[in-house]
Automatic annotation (TrEMBL):
GO terms for molecular function: phosphotransferase activity, for other substituted phosphate groups. Residues 9-190 form the Bacterial sugar transferase domain. The keyword Magnesium does not apply. Belongs to the bacterial sugar transferase family. Keywords: Membrane, Transferase, Transmembrane, Transmembrane helix. The keyword Transmembrane applies. This is Putative colanic biosynthesis UDP-glucose lipid carrier transferase. The chain crosses the membrane at residues 12-35. It holds the Pfam family Bac_transf.
Length: 206
């Protein structure tokens, strides 16, 4: 049954990412041009992340901060509301989570899934080998654009506490759970509730 769910999950990822990229293509172009003409630097932000089985992959997002922002100010930690490193367009993209749209490409090529644990950077908060055997279960599936932790506790708990929800998701992996999480995510976006706030690692959303 698990293999069947993984097969269906991949089919949904492929169809969902293709549909999403086609549907949002005009918006993707507008965002790209807005970034290009309002701040210096590349349109996209590339960063190494830990994926399935701890393998490193490159995540793709729209750039929302000035170039080399991670070497300025508070480094990886960001104040979403008043961090001067965030560009004007970046503030809007982050508040609406539109900066995450390029990750649909990561999903299409099989590096990510629409739903799964969020992928951390390889060196923070832990290196892959520093996670406990239980915690490494979160890496048994592909990382997701959204996940159970994001729609359940969002940023109200620590990274380690959030992993508990990631493990629960992996243990109970089911396509219907994915569908429920995606609908909850859409509801969160519609009501403009920030899924990725400042208390969790994934606040580093350049």
């Amino acid at each position: 049954m698990r293999k069947f769910n993984l097969f269906l999950k991949r089919i949904i990822d492929i169809l969902g990412s293709i549909f999403g990229l086609i549907l949002t293509s005009p918006l993707l172009l507008i965002i790209a041009l807005s970034i290009k003409f309002t701040s210096e630097g590349p349109i996209f932000f590339h960063q190494e992340r830990l994926g399935k089985d701890g393998k490193v992959f490159i995540i793709l997002k729209y750039r929302t901060m000035v170039v080399n922002a991670e070497k300025m100010g508070t480094g990886l930690f960001i104040e979403p509301e008043n961090d001067s490193r965030i560009t004007k367009v970046g503030h809007f993209l982050r508040s609406t989570s539109l900066d995450e749209l390029p990750q649909l490409w990561n999903v299409l090529i099989g590096k990510m899934s629409l739903v799964g644990p969020r992928p951390p950077v390889p060196y923070y908060p832990y290196k892959y080998e520093e996670y406990s055997d239980l915690q490494r279960m979160r890496f048994d599936v592909k990382p997701g654009i959204t996940g159970l932790s994001q729609v359940t506790v969002r940023n109200s708990v620590s990274w380690d506490e959030g992993i508990v929800y990631d493990i629960e998701y992996v243990r109970n992996l089911n396509v219907w759970i994915d569908i429920k999480i995606m609908f909850k995510t859409l509801r969160t976006l519609i009501y403009r509730e920030n899924i990725y706030g400042k208390s969790r690692f994934d606040n580093w959303r350049n």
